Please model this.
Amino acid sequence: MSHTLITINDVIKSAKVPLDAGGRKLLHEAFAFADAAHEGQKRRSGEPYVQHCLHTAKILAEIGMDAKTIAAGLLHDAPEDTDVTLEEVEQTFGKEIAWMVDGVTKLGHIRLRGSREEMFIENLRKMFLAMAQDIRVVIVKLADRLHNMRTLDAVPSEKQERIAKETMEVYAQIANRLGISEIKTELEDLAFMYLQPEEYALVRAMYTKEKEEYEKYIDRAIANIAKSLKKEGIKFREIKGRAKSIYSLYVKLQRYDMDISRIYDIVAIRIIVPSIADCYEALGIVHKRYRPMVGRIKDYISLPKPNGYQSIHTTIFGPEGRIIEVQIRTPQMHSEAEFGIAAHWIYKEKSRSSWRNYFFRGTHKERERIEEQRQTRWVQQLREWQKDIASDNEEFMKGLKIDFFKNHIFAFTPKGDIIDLPEESTPIDFAYAIHSEVGDRATGAKVDGKMVSLDHTIRNGQVVEILTTKEHKVPNAKWLEFVRTSSARSHIRRELKRAGEKIAPLPDITKQKARERRSARKDRK
Ligand code: MN
Model:
């Protein structure tokens, strides 16, 4: 376990985005403040409490967060665990940092009450609601949890399991959803170690044995591929082996009867090239050199994964005929893959420096294409939000509280599954989002335990229960008047058609518009 003592200079040195003088000054001040506040307090492991604050801040620095967020990491436990008040934090460091600290404290108030399941739902709900306010609050909370997991050995064993379970089920999920795979992977591995120590030991042993030999082999393959790329004039930035995490290996092993010889990507080769065009060119070169395995080429550049992940994956018969996975991507995709949404602070900061050139290589057109392709809906909204506030500092404060998912809500099933829907969705949209059968058979709905009509507007964070009938049922044509999602709409129409019901034609918008325009013209005359 890592209980290394670090200093504020270690935090500053580990910043992925180099901090300017103002940022460094802020962090020294925040550290001095936290150090004084936590004076005399010790962690369970015996080290000074402020070490936890430093480590949390260091994680935030490493994933490229801005100075204010790192400062919030240093201060995150002060109002909760010391005599310092939130007002004092605000007086010293301003509203923005105080607001983040407050958010992290509130997220921390989740305590075990009621059943496990209730706790789980509550956790997720609070996380998502906080996220809708300011995503940085959640990122600080993830860093806090990561350090707590790294030092979980100091916690009494009866608590370890609960914390590890919550980490696996809530925190790792959220890190994944935000695309911060660096944090997600480590949280999963640590939680796995506490939750299933025997399986963990087994997989780790299998892995260590395979990995050593595998890595030597991979090095040879890398040398060959690098030579081919150079010969064809591809200027790759990096080509190296990347080992799978223990937990993801375990998940995969379960699908392959625990037979490690059937897993081809224990160590994958990762090639980073400047532009998208280079990605496809590099793919061609790799395939020219080594025969690809049929059906294993995955183009996540054209079709990104739901969390925005982009890369090309291919599996080849490498040197000596052994099977290896190769991943090809641009530096920007790489940064996004590791740091997810956090990478956007990196771009924001770097836009003023030469880093821009590092990420945005290629022609203007290509840049636009990358931009367009890579953005998930969330990120797009974040960007718009940043654009709005960039010109106005005062607006920035207000912006912090602007709903991040402006046109987007999260609702929960009674079991705690998250269903995301457009704003103003109804229980019918919710029902179809679960399953078309649930939609068809819906007879009523409860929101937060109370009966509501089926055209009720669901709000962010509500728990929705759909009441259904057992018999097969044709959807109600009236539903078409209020459903919000096109998937529900098209399903209802299809089912009605199949049942031979007459559907009122959709109002002809073009005709209506023309009529409006005509009358407007008349009015002007
Ligand atoms: Mn903490």
Remarks:
- The radius of gyration is 26 Å.
